[in-house]
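Q: Structure tokens for this one, please.
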Amino acid sequence: MTGRGRPRKAKSPDKKCAKGKTRPEEMKPASLPRCTGKENRGESQGGTAMEQKAKEQKKKKHTEEKPSAQGTRKEETTKHSTEEQKRTPTDHTKAKTDGGNMKLQDKFPEAVTKMCPEMPKGATKASPQTAKSKTCGRKAELRAQFAEEPSKDNLDACVQIPKPKACAGKVKSPPKFVKETAKTPLEKPKAIAKAKKCADKEKSPEKLPEKAAVDSVLSKTLDKLKIKKDEISDAAEVVNEITHAIINHMKQKSECFKEVGNPLRSGSYYEKLKISNPDEFDVMLPMLVNRANVEPFGKDGAFYSVGLKRGNSPLKKFQENNTLSASDMLKEFRDEVKKCVKGFTEWAVTKKKRGCPAVTLITQVKSITISLDIVLCLMVKSSWPSFTTDGLKIEGWLGTKVKKEYKLSGYYLVPKYEGNGNREDEGVLAKDSWRVSFSHIEKAILTNHGSEKTCCEKGGARCCRKDCLKLLKHLLSKLKESDSSFDKFSSYHVKTTLLHACCSRTKDTDWSASSLSHCFQLLLQDFVAHLESGELNNFFIPTQNLLSGPGPKKCNMLASRIREERERGFPIFQ
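A: Here is the predicted structure, written as tokens:
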């Protein structure tokens, strides 16, 4: 049609026709990176339609590029198909089955194109395989990310992700990999549920009544061990009366002991650790020695020989060869006590025990038999012996300042020996040696036992340190009643165990009153461990083993009996 209207302008081949289709010859070829070294270099871009489609299909296989807008039919020449099958037989399967990856390619063609960089012209036949290996590795990573992730507890059951180099050979099909990975989380909940069920059985409520029963037994036992106030009052009255009488007698009627000092009340009653009955009291009567030569007797650091230096001390009567005789001094002191007690018919002096530093008096107050140990001692106002350097480890419990104050308070020596009294060491007999005593420090520690100053005070939190000690003392006394072979074990072993335990568990919260049962079990463990090892070091003198006397056989017997009581829920208390 010519002559009417405006003449038609030729449309640019770059613009899309609204209804028509652009011919292949007019298409602007897409710039695709070259992934193979095999190209028909002599061809021009305007070749035949069949050859153009073959080239585009070949490039699409290697680059996984988005197809052209018009779409091309999937036809391949026999030669090209043969070459592709030789390299990767499973590529066509991948392209068909991996629908998810095709969608990603449709959305992000540039990102996918970057995954396959342009190969140099001189690349060998191995180059396409290497590129395909990297692409396959990326696909495997994508599939692993979109598959359900297995949990850490079942990693060993999961199928491992194949390494990229395996893509060049035989590779498991993606659907199979996803399927096997998906199976794992389904099997896992069964195993978790089974394990949880077993864990719940281990926490079975069958043990809870047992623990509650033990708590009940311990609480009831502590209630039984409480001393009645009227009994305390009656006992304290008679003890204080005889103690004042003895001190007055020494000051007024004794030449040797007229310089005796104020009584030092120590022991379980004054430490508020007495159980059952107020039937035992300990009072020390100190004699001050300002200038004395104190030398170790033996190797454990617990016993010493004492020699008075120049001065007019009344105790020089008992010194021979620069050694103060503990046995002679104790004998004289015992005689003076007997003279005093003659005026108190309700009191009687018991027979002297071998190696015992005390003069023991007994009396009857209502239904309770009371014993009072009067102990003569030397008070030394000087630095502690060198054997105590590594002892008294209370820095983490009570603090460094408290320790310093304790060490400045001096120490005491009592006329006590062990073994054969006639044993001689450097010209000194064992019966004339003195044992070091820190009973005043023990009393101070147990009275102010908290890491916090308000522990067990009226406005502070209450701990169970003393309750644990009372229970262990009671257990030991019960076992000694049932078996006389345990007589060599004393409450001092129990007290020392507690002091060591307090230094290892220093906080007041470690000994809260609500955790009585747990704390008592821990203290029993500590005591049994000392018995089984046969070693319980003196709290002040680490070089002295307090369990060397009973021996390993009896220690193991006692440990076995304590374990038996624990396992049976302490029937001995019931």
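A few notes: Residues 61-192 form one domain. The chain has three domains: 61-192, 224-438, 449-574.
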